[in-house]
Amino acid sequence: MKRNAMIGYTLAAALCAGPAMAQELTGTLKKVKETGAITLGFRDSSVPFSYLDDSQKPIGYAMDICYKIVDAVKKELKLDKLEVKLNPVTSSTRIPLMANGTVDLECGSTTNNAERQKQVWFTNTHFLTASRFVAKKSSKINSIDGLKGKPVVSTSGTTNIKQLTEANAARNLGINIIPAKDHAEAFLMVETDRAVAFVMDDILLASLVAGSKAPGDYVISKDAFSKPEPYGIMLRKDDAAFKKVVDAATAALYTGGEGQKIYDKWFTQKIPPKGLNLNVPIDAKPKRDPSRPLKRLRNIEERLASLEQNINNLLQAAGGTPTAAVTQLRPRRTRRPANKNSGS
Q: Can you give the residue range of the structural domain that contains 65?
C-alpha cells in the first residue's frame, strides 16, 4: 500500500509539473510565448553587421546571428511559428528601447563594456574592434594630438564619442566635438569637410572607407582611443532564463561550421548593395575535440591571431597602418575565461 501510495504521489506530481513549468516562464521568454512574436532591433548603417540593403531590408552579420537565436527561442518554447518584428534603433536609442521592452534583441555593433552591463546584458562576443579615427590624407593628420583645435565628429550614444571626449579633456586638445545621429552622417561630414576626422570602431571605419566614392582619399589612424573591445548581441538585464537560451544558441553557432560560413559570407565575400568585399578572413575552422578544452582554446587563439593580421591588412588597404594594440585581441592561455553574466 505504501509503495502504491508513493507511486500515486509521484504520478500526481508529474502531472502537475507540466502546467507549473509553463507558468514559470518569466521575462522575455514569457513575453514571446504570450505574444507569439519577438522584436529585433537593427541599425541602418553599421556595415557589415547591421544595415539596410537597396530594398531597405535589414541585413548583416549580426542580423544573421539574431535569426539563429530566434530559431533557438522558437525551439525552446515549442512554438509552431514565431513572428519576427523589426524595429530600427540608433546608438542613442538602443539601450532605452531594450530597457522599456520595445526590442528583445539588439542586432548591431554594440560594444560590451562594464558601464553598459549596469543597464543591459550581452551574449557571447561576435567581434573585436578598437576605436580610431578616419581623416582625409590631404589633412596630413596622423595622430590623436594632430586633432588639436579641429572639428571632429563621432556618433551620439557610442563609447567612441565618450572616449573622444575623455581624450580631449585629458590632453587639453580643444577639439570641437560634433555629435552625429549615425555613422553614415558622421562619415559624410568628413567627406564634405565639415569635420576633419570621424572617431569610430576601426572595422566600421574600414567598411565606410571601402564603400566610399574615393577610398584612396582616406587614412585610418594608427593611434587608438581604446584597446580592442568586444561586440555582443544585447538583451535585457536580469533575464537569466532568456540569456541561457541566447548564450547556448550563440555558443553552438560560433563553435560550429555554420558560424564560420556566416562569418565568411559577410567578411570574405561580396556583400550588398555595392558588392564590397572586406576581405577579413579567419583561418579554416579548427578540428573540434570536446574532450580537450585547452586545445580548443589554443585553436581559438590561432583564429583570433589570423583575424588580427587580416584586420591590419584591411586598415593598411584603407590607408592606415597596423598597431601593436591589436595584438591584445589574443586571449590569455593561463586560465579559461569566466562565464559571467556579460556574455563576453
A: 24-130+228-288
Q: Which whole number is the average pLDDT over 88-102?
A: 97
Residue 315: band (very low, low, confident or very high) from pLDDT cuts 50, 70, 90: low
CA distance 204 to 234: 18
Residues 126 and 233 in one domain: yes
- Residue 133 class from Cβ within 10 Å (0-12 exposed, 13-18 middle, 19+ buried)? buried
Question: In sequence order, what are the beta bridge partners of 38?
Answer: 84
Number of domains in the chain: 2
* Helix (H), strand (E) at residue 189: helix 183-191
Q: DSSP class of residue 333? A: S
Name the residue with cell 505574444.
35
Residue 86 lies in a domain: yes
Q: How much of the chain exceeds pLDDT 90, in percent?
A: 73
Contacts (Cβ under 8 Å, ≥6 apart) of 305: 329, 330
Give tens-digit pLDDT for 70-83.
999 999 999 999 99
What CA–CA distance (Å, rounded) separates 40 from 87?
6
Query: Which one-letter amino acid corresponds to residue 151?
Result: P
User: Rounded to whole angstroms, how far apart are CA atoms 247 and 242?
Assistant: 9
Q: What is the CATH number of the domain that holds 183?
A: 3.40.190.10
CB 206, CB 318: distance < 8 Å: yes
Nearest to 175 by CA among 211, 201, 146: 146
| pLDDT tens string 194-228 | 999 999 999 999 999 999 999 999 999 999 999 99
pTM passes above 0.85: no
